[in-house]
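Q: Convert this sequence to structure tokens.
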Amino acid sequence: MEPAESLVVWLNRRLVDSTEMLGMGVYVLLRRGRPVCVGRAKNVLARVAKHRELAGKEVPGWFPVQGVYFDQVLWVPSHPDRIEEDLARIRAEYMEKGYENPA
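A:
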């Protein structure tokens, strides 16, 4: 049995491969099922972690990342040639539902 497999058995849970989140993509942060932020990043995992780290802290408006309280992350990998298009499409979908991106 591989070490990762034995860890899964010991924890009685399934490990999730999040390697792709180290790459570029568009993400939606939700709180209680409601979107609170839509954004894009070269490294989605790092950006999402930064949003969480800064939540509740005073951050200058010029700083590229604002703190956000969230309890769910949705995201889609994206190629540099289409990331702006993906971001616009996902933002439009949420704005149709009355959501405005605070960040």
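Residues 6 and 27 are 32 Å apart (CA to CA).
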